[in-house]
Write the structure tokens for this entry.
Amino acid sequence: MHLFVRRARLAGGQSRAAMMWATEITDRVNQVTDLGFTLHAQVFSAEVGELVWAAAVPDLSTLEKGVEKLQVDDFYMAEQDRGHSFMLTPPNDVLQTIVHG
């Protein structure tokens, strides 16, 4: 079992639009891939303004197949590009192996 996490730091000034975009792209990812991504916003911490997407996958091939589906989805690709206007820096990805739990 693996946990894939993507983090993005919002630039500020467009909070409502950024949250609407984040919700829409999360919904699209879940429609296209069935990976079950969740979206979280950091609050009450040093990372306020950071969005976090996460999905647990049984194996790497499941994640790879999901990514391949997204790469050919025109709506996702356009929204991914648009999302960069809401971010301070490009997103940061982490892949972890779940050891217990």
